[in-house]
Amino acid sequence: MIPNFKAHPWHGIPVGDEAPDVVNVFVEIVPSDTIKYEIDKQSGYLKVDRPQQFSNIIPALYGFIPRTYCHDEVLRLAVESGAQNVDTGDLDPLDICVLSSHNINSGGMIMEALPIGGFKMIDKGEADDKIVAVMKGDHAFGHFRDISELPQAEVKRLMHYFLTYKNLPDEPAKCTIHEVYGAEHAKKVIQASQQDYANKFGG
């Protein structure tokens, strides 16, 4: 008899056969959350990272792409794009936010998403890319194929969140967004993070 087991969300779930065009996403946070959850890298369970201190709420589903890692190859893309004051990848799985019109109440799930762009974010010297994607089959967002097709208000809303979610009111900004890029570069970032994962963990 084969014993049941729970696959580790980072290491035990494939990125998907159609990557980087369609990727699996492990969702950690949904827009209704007032607690920031993140994966515990050792156990694979969601853990409480911190309560949200202010009114900035994540405007999309948020998580990571399994079997990715942000290190030298992701750093190389940031440097090649002209980013300055960046020394390394952030040594975490690749972050991704997924736009959907559906009211999803909790994280800890897997979904398929289509990358349409991203933000080249630099956080205290680390390349911390945020991929922007749409939920596969979503009736309101699923037809978008590039971030340039989104309403600018939607892009600015995402940018504002990522630029402010770590800041206290009396502190200077900790993060900068070097550039907003489209689907083609987003897929390069995904592939670079897959290579970084293979270099770090094998496979």
UniProtKB/TrEMBL annotation:
Coiled coil: none
Keywords: Hydrolase, Magnesium, Metal-binding
Entry EC number(s): 3.6.1.1
Top-tier EC class: hydrolase
Reported cofactor(s): Mg(2+)
GO CC terms of this entry: cytoplasm
Domain of life of the source: Bacteria
Pfam families assigned: Pyrophosphatase
GO BP annotations listed: phosphate-containing compound metabolic process
Cross-referenced Gene3D superfamilies: Inorganic pyrophosphatase
Molecular function per GO: inorganic diphosphate phosphatase activity; magnesium ion binding
NCBIfam families according to UniProt: PRK00642.1
Protein name: inorganic diphosphatase
Lineage: Bacteria, Pseudomonadati, Bacteroidota, Flavobacteriia, Flavobacteriales
Gene: ppa
